[in-house]
Write a structure and sequence with these properties.
The chain is α+β, with helices and mostly antiparallel strands and about 525 residues long. It has 2 domains: about 260 residues, Glutamine Phosphoribosylpyrophosphate, subunit 1, domain 1; about 180 residues, Rossmann fold (3-Layer(aba) Sandwich). The protein has 17 helices and 24 strands. About 50% of the residues are buried.
């Protein structure tokens, strides 16, 4: 059963829904005050949580778990609670604290719960794409499912579901809804939830971490590549599964281990049970370490905060600068700025104050308000930065609008020099595995002179100097073998392949072919120059 209301707010974009054609133009500089054109940072699309704990208030545990995962999705939230045979789902648009109150949580009674917090992605969508998804099997079994990631064979699975009349392609169902429908379709008097899942997931391709339930057991699955993190925690009388270990800490669960790539987990009154449904070929997202995950989380045994501080140290070694003060762009740039200050010997200070309560708004800003742009999110501390040569550390540059507005604001606040240092390599490729990056044409790194990219990006942003940490240093700080990581947004190598029918994927294929042709021409020219007899 689903209990929820459609708020009538702007529709959400559904994960892997039918894509719209990208008509974005290359980024252009602006002279309009501090207008950052509403640029958003890279966004993780979802966070998932699940708890099996008889005798506990599982809805409130899930609420606090989602609260800890709010950074992974701030546009919709939902909780599904099972009490044996029935599942009650409540979901809506908004932050976790906006969707749920004491009365709603008290109405969600049971011993199993799954939760989901969500960002919108590119393409059409609506309230129905908020999760958990809910379906009923032919034998009356309720199924609720929450999903983090993106599928690369979404169209194939949707066609299968459509042929069985489980979904209508005209409704642009999300990949999460398609999976939920296919699992429910497999369940009958002779096929359990576990058996249905083990039939389906070997055929699912792409990035996916899921928590799901039939009201009797809690289940979790992680794709064979382990692109997104998923961890198991132990309560005094139950179990928890979460996208990040930080949420385990928040609800008082002791970390046990990560769900392995290609692993299926079942939890019920008999305890916890594991089955492998595919061979593990790890390709964890390196951007989780750089930006997406909370700094107090641990991924594959590596503390995220330690990685980011170490990236800052490596950044100082690779891109030193003469300055008076190292300041972060809060909050994501803070650990790397600490590391930069440590390695450079320069003092660290908070030179920018972040407005923690600026989020998604449906109020159309006036031109005057729009010109404030980045100042609605960040405000410089003039008494700290005035007359200083600043080294400003941020996590990434995507479209470049934020950096341009930030540099201008710091200069207007009295900074003598602004040297920008970025704790990741230039972002040149979109993500198809669960991060909401813009199309290739919108990325600043693709809209400047490729023969002198960093200097050209510096000119666009207006900084006195600009430096990016190298891919090699970034990977080393993660403490993971290079071959076990996905860095597609930086190097354009997509280990899980590209989705069919996606216009951004077509742009990537065209760009890859063009770069390959240019490389062949360059190589041919070098061979010709080395063989003068052929000239």
């Amino acid at each position: 059963m689903i209990v929820a209301k459609d708020t009538g707010l702007n529709s959400l974009n559904g994960t892997n829904s039918a894509p719209s054609v990208d008509t974005a133009q290359p980024v252009q500089p602006t002279d309009r005050g501090y207008d950052d054109h509403g640029e958003q940072p890279p966004r993780e699309e979802c966070g998932v949580f699940g708890v099996w704990a008889p005798g506990e208030d599982v809805s409130k545990l899930t609420y606090y778990g989602l609260y800890a995962l709010q950074h992974r999705g701030q546009e919709a939230a939902g909780i599904g609670v099972g009490s044996g045979d029935q599942i009650l789902v409540y979901k809506d648009l908004g932050l976790v604290s906006q969707v749920f109150d004491e009365q709603i949580l008290n109405s969600l009674k049971g011993h199993i719960a799954i939760g989901h917090t969500r960002y919108a992605t590119a393409g059409g969508g609506r309230w129905e794409n908020a999760q958990p998804m809910f379906r009923m099997a032919s034998d009356g079994t309720d199924v609720a499912l929450g999903h983090n990631g993106n599928l690369t064979n979404y169209l194939e699975l949707m066609a299968e579901a459509a042929e069985k009349r489980l979904v209508d392609p005209a409704d642009e169902p999300s990949d999460s809804d398609v999976m939920c429908a296919l699992i429910a379709d497999l369940i009958d008097e002779n096929t359990s939830m576990e058996e249905a899942a083990l039939q389906l997931f070997p055929r699912v391709k792409g990035a996916y971490c899921l928590t799901f339930t039939d009201g009797k057991g809690l289940y979790a699955v992680r794709d064979p590549h382990g692109v997104r993190p998923l961890s198991i925690g132990k309560l005094a009388n139950g179990w928890v599964v979460s996208s990040e270990t930080a949420a385990l800490d928040i609800v008082g669960a002791e970390f046990v281990r990560d769900v392995e790539p290609g692993e299926f987990i079942a939890i019920n009154e008999d305890g916890i049970r594991s089955r492998k449904f595919a061979e593990a070929t790890p390709k964890g997202c390196v951007f989780e370490y750089v930006y997406l995950a909370r700094p107090d989380s641990v991924i594959n045994g590596q503390p995220v905060n330690a990685t980011r501080v170490d990236i800052g140290r490596r950044l100082a070694e690779e891109w030193p600068a003469e300055g008076d003060l190292v300041i972060p762009v809060p909050d994501s740039g803070t650990p790397a700025a600490v590391g930069y200050a440590q390695a450079s010997g320069l003092p660290f200070s908070q030179g920018l104050t972040k407005n923690a309560y600026v989020g998604r708004t449906f109020i159309e800003p006036s031109q005057t308000i729009r010109q404030l742009g980045i100042r609605l999110k960040l405000n410089p501390l003039r008494h700290v930065i005035e007359g200083k040569r600043l080294i400003v550390v941020d996590d990434s540059i995507v479209r470049g609008n934020t950096q341009r507005a930030l540099v201008r604001m710091l200069r207007d606040a009295g900074a003598a020099e602004v040297h920008v240092r970025i704790a990741s390599p230039p972002v040149k490729w979109p993500c198809f595995y669960g991060i909401d990056f813009p199309s290739p044409n919108e990325l600043l790194a693709n809209n400047v002179d490729q023969n002198n990219m960093v200097e050209a990006m510096r000119e666009e942003g207006g900084a006195d100097s600009l430096g990016f940490v190298s891919t090699e240093a970034m990977v080393e700080t993660s403490a993971q073998p290079r071959e076990t990581l996905c860095a597609a947004c930086f190097d354009g190598v997509y280990p899980l392949g590209l989705p069919a029918g996606n216009p951004n994927a077509e742009q990537v294929r065209l760009r890859q072919r063009r770069l390959a042709e240019e490389a062949e021409q360059t190589a041919a020219g070098e061979v010709s120059s080395n063989n003068p007899e052929e000239n």
